[in-house]
Backbone:
């Protein structure tokens, strides 16, 4: 089921690359959040998306926003990916896919005549109150971090 703007963001707690638990509830009333879901550490498009968000981490912080990348890779893969690519934002491990399912990004797709399940590149912009303001499914990674930043800045006006 796809989430829509105006709905309460599903709550979760997931480990980051350092195996520290990040609890979404800790940010309620404090910060805006950007959650971007991506398929796999190290693939070309996912690398570009994660590094673009990381490159603008300071701009998001100035907009009173924290950015988290989420994939089904494990914590060790995230740590290696961050070290190799110089990614500063937190990447969260949803190894069992439960959060991907909560957010509706775990979808069946057809590729090469075969149906396969996978993560659809998606981004959610959540306000301080925990309400989804933008639910963006099937996004193109090119320029996406700056588009997300623009949407976050609109929450502050």
Residues:
């Amino acid at each position: 089921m796809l989430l829509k703007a105006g709905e309460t963001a599903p709550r979760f707690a997931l480990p980051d690359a350092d195996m520290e638990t990040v609890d979404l509830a800790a940010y309620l009333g404090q910060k805006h959040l950007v959650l971007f879901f991506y398929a796999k550490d190290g693939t070309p498009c996912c690398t570009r998306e994660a590094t673009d968000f990381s490159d603008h981490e300071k701009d998001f912080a100035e907009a009173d926003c924290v950015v988290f990348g989420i994939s089904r890779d494990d914590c060790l893969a995230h740590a290696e990916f961050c070290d190799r690519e110089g990614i500063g934002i937190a990447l969260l491990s949803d190894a069992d896919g439960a959060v991907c399912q909560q957010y509706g990004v775990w979808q069946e797709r057809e590729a090469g005549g075969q149906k396969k399940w996978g993560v659809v590149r998606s981004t959610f912009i959540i306000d301080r109150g925990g309400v989804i303001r933008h639910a963006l499914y099937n996004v193109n990674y090119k320029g996406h971090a700056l588009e997300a930043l623009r949407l976050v800045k609109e929450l502050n006006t």
Q: What stands out?
A: The longest helix spans residues 44-55. The CA atoms of residues 51 and 85 lie 7 Å apart. The two ends are 31 Å apart (CA to CA). The helical segments are 44-55, 57-62, 75-85, 98-102, 144-155.
